[in-house]
Amino acid sequence: MLKLYYGLQAESGNKGTTATTDPCDINGAHFKPEVYLQRLMQEKSLNELMDKERDMVRQIRSLDSDMQTLVYENYNKFISATDTIRKMKNDFKKMEDEMDRLATNMESITEFSARISGTLQDRRQQITKLSGVHMLLKKLQFLFELPARLKKCIEMQAYGQAVRYYTKARTVLDQYQHMPSFHGIREDCSVIVAELCVKLREQFKNKESDAHQLAECVDLLLQLKEPADELCDEFLLHARHKVDEDLEMLRLQLRMLEEGQVPSPGDPGDGDKPHPMDVLEFTDTGCNVFLSDMCLVIASYKDLFINRPGTGVQEQAHLEKVANQKLEVFVNSLMGQYFSYVEQRVQLEKESSDNTLLVRALDRFHRRLQAVEKLLPETESTSSATGIVAKMAHDRVIHYSEALRRHFADCLTDVRQSLAASRSLSKQEGSNLGDLLQTTATSILDQLKTVLSDLRAFIESDITFAMQPYFREPFCVQDVREGLVVGFLKHMFTACSEFCEGSGDKSSAPPPLILLLSRLCLDYDMTTISYLISLTDEQFLVEDKSAVTPLSELCNLAKDTAQKLLDHYVKVQGLTISQMLRKSVETRDWLNTIEPRNVRAVMKRVVEDVTAIDSQVGLLYEEGLRKAHSSDSSKRTFPYSSSRQNQRSQWSSYAPSSNMDTSLMSNIQKLFSERIEIFSAVDFSKVSVLTGIIKISLKTFLECVRLRTFARFGLQQIQVDCHYLQMYLWRFVSDENLVHTLLDEIVGSAIHRCLDPITMEPSVIEVICDRG
């Protein structure tokens, strides 16, 4: 058996007889040690025999070791097998005895069965017939007793048992209604079932019936072949009464809030009197009451009319179609009212200062509506809820945008008040200009960061709608980044630019305010805009930059606004000084003036104002680049360059009868002088700003001088004034030659317009100016 199991018999059969009977095959069954040893001694040498001996000893040891290992490894198996074999011997003995008894019993059973078959063989057909008659009589008895049973069930309010009795017999009664006896039973049952339907409908219309009782009533009425359309309408009408009560409670809350009653958290109200709810409590009430009832109605309705088992395919398809249409109209009507109430309630929170309650309320509202959509996907409740959430988030962004704009306007008002207070107290408008700039910039930036932090509540990780792409991307990109941050920056720059238009209240803006706003816009261009945009993109995960305003565009807008404001500041300050100079020239009688002994007060005022402006601008802007000054810039006797002194000295001996045309001299001189652009754009530096103001002032002075006629002393007064201006103004400009050139032209124009052009001695001019 072992050879058969391991296949040794087949293997030995294939090898042939010679292979199995070889006496020298040490592994064969016919191995003979004497023959094997004799062959080895004949064929092998002594060394080979010794090697063969060692090899055989090694193999013997290896086999012994393997045998011991097998014995050790299978020792427990050997013991277990021995015990099993011993038990099998005992069990087989008992089994043999039981098998003997079983055989004896089977023989007895066979004998009795043969006897019974023989005895009943003649009566078998008769017994079968009697059994059928007995079953038929029981059915007839059930039919005859059916009316009484139905009445008994109705009296006991066992409506379900009554319906089961009737549905069980209905087919037979319909089939044999042509027989008088069955017809009478059928008529009696029809009257009783009609009464049963009335009681079921009464229970169905009872407002105190719970969902289980309603479901049972509808199920029984459907089994009684009541019209499904009418049952659908009655079920939804009954359900609507309860849901309308929930909506009425929400509407009452809205009316209380519209009347001005303020919700107070934790206030339970006075007894049964309802109290105003905050937005979170309002949403919880709507979810736990209205939406819970709606889910229960939908689930019950679908179980009764749509997912109803045991009906025909065509009948089920028709019922499902009609029931779905009625349910969809019912749900859409009520959900529309609910959405309207929720939207009205959250709109009341549009201007609240805290987003926490609002976002939690919107999250619960959105989360609970997902359950409604799972029950009835045709309503698309989630998309409607997302629309409400998105609109509320958009309204909050608009509210924050308006708050930021009001805050910016308040900051400008505070700056104006501070400047006015500083001017009235110390006559130094710019003494605290640097602090005002820092305070204003910090206030605006902190307000923006606070708003961004508040709006992050809409995209927290635990908010369900925050992770939806149809909400997150429009909110983060279009509302927050573009609508709030970029929109506020553009509004701020536009509001600043309006100070340069010269219309309405903007035209009365003090120059220090314009200067401060210019520096503020420049700081935004250099650092603040990049920081704000990076902060927004990081906090709100703005990844798609294709549909957003580029950073470079905002920086360019800020820089252009800063440039426009600074140019306007230069223009305003230049025109202020020009106004003083124009009045000083136009109101003086230059033909009858006395010989100059002092510098006019207006020139001192001009120097004082320019010095104040220099201090004011220096608080906000860097010094800037200057050209190298000459060593005698403050000691020139004439306010014109030394290279022209020889020409100017000729003016002292100028007479109207001279052959030299003075206007020709002036025009020839201008050909060799550099053109001065008066209203050119200034750089963002103190020197450039002061240069622009001084250019405007001196150009106005020049044009006013060209329109007046001077006597000799009037010309000398102009000389003294110009020399005084030259002594101080060269320090403020980027190129002192610009001041020298304009003052040269002023003196030259005065000489040209003088009736007796005799200039004053340089030494006398120096004495007067030093004394002034």
TrEMBL record:
Gene Ontology annotations for the cellular component aspect, listed alphabetically: cytosol; GARP complex
Name of protein: Vacuolar protein sorting-associated protein 51 homolog
Skewed-composition ranges (Low complexity): 641-653
InterPro entries, A to Z: DBL_dom_sf, EXOC2/Sec5_N_dom, Vps51
Family: Belongs to the VPS51 family.
One Pfam family recorded for the sequence: Sec5
Positions of region (Disordered): 631-657
Residues covered by the Exocyst complex component EXOC2/Sec5 N-terminal domain: 26-229
Subcellular location: Golgi apparatus, trans-Golgi network
GO biological process: Golgi organization; lipid transport; protein transport; retrograde transport, endosome to Golgi
Alphabetical keyword list: Golgi apparatus, Lipid transport, Protein transport, Transport
Main location: Golgi
Function: Acts as component of the GARP complex that is involved in retrograde transport from early and late endosomes to the trans-Golgi network (TGN).
The organism's place on the tree of life at top rank: Eukaryota
Assembly and interaction partners: Component of the Golgi-associated retrograde protein (GARP) complex.
